[in-house]
Amino acid sequence: MVEDVSLCFNALGGMPGPYIKWFLKSIGPAGLHKMLHGFEDKSAYAQCIFGYSSGEEGSTIHIFDGRCSGRIVEPRGSTEFGWDPIFEPEGYDKTYAEMEPALKNSISHRSKAIAALRKFLDQS
């Protein structure tokens, strides 16, 4: 099993996407927010993809995609976890960083991908 996480800005055609780790390391959360300065569209989505295979030779690789739509905002909340301070999920007035962990984990891109993976494993 492998996992990858992306943060995709719609105004930038999905960038930084899977390169978010390196963008974050280079410019930090505030810099990520500033990337959209000249754009009216601040919408984005967080994405988690799991790839799963039984490991047997020739086995099928199954892909599980979890997404959470939202928007990019000025950093708010704890800076302990990556880009959480700039991502505000759709329907909420708090960033991931401002949310209680239980709420964040229940709506996150990762939880959606895990739910799809679990459903597949339960049916297998």
TrEMBL record:
<dbReference type="InterPro" id="IPR029001">
    <property type="entry name" value="ITPase-like_fam"/>
</dbReference>
<keyword id="KW-0378">Hydrolase</keyword>
<dbReference type="GO" id="GO:0000166">
    <property type="term" value="F:nucleotide binding"/>
</dbReference>
<keyword id="KW-0479">Metal-binding</keyword>
<keyword id="KW-0460">Magnesium</keyword>
<dbReference type="InterPro" id="IPR002637">
    <property type="entry name" value="RdgB/HAM1"/>
</dbReference>
<keyword id="KW-0546">Nucleotide metabolism</keyword>
<dbReference type="GO" id="GO:0009117">
    <property type="term" value="P:nucleotide metabolic process"/>
</dbReference>
<protein>
    <recommendedName>
        <fullName>XTP/dITP diphosphatase</fullName>
        <ecNumber>3.6.1.66</ecNumber>
    </recommendedName>
</protein>
<dbReference type="GO" id="GO:0046872">
    <property type="term" value="F:metal ion binding"/>
</dbReference>
<comment type="similarity">
    <text>Belongs to the HAM1 NTPase family.</text>
</comment>
<keyword id="KW-0547">Nucleotide-binding</keyword>
<keyword id="KW-0963">Cytoplasm</keyword>
<dbReference type="GO" id="GO:0036220">
    <property type="term" value="F:ITP diphosphatase activity"/>
</dbReference>
<dbReference type="GO" id="GO:0005737">
    <property type="term" value="C:cytoplasm"/>
</dbReference>
<dbReference type="GO" id="GO:0009143">
    <property type="term" value="P:nucleoside triphosphate catabolic process"/>
</dbReference>
<comment type="function">
    <text>Pyrophosphatase that hydrolyzes the non-canonical purine nucleotides inosine triphosphate (ITP), deoxyinosine triphosphate (dITP) as well as 2'-deoxy-N-6-hydroxylaminopurine triphosphate (dHAPTP) and xanthosine 5'-triphosphate (XTP) to their respective monophosphate derivatives. The enzyme does not distinguish between the deoxy- and ribose forms. Probably excludes non-canonical purines from RNA and DNA precursor pools, thus preventing their incorporation into RNA and DNA and avoiding chromosomal lesions.</text>
</comment>
<dbReference type="Pfam" id="PF01725">
    <property type="entry name" value="Ham1p_like"/>
</dbReference>
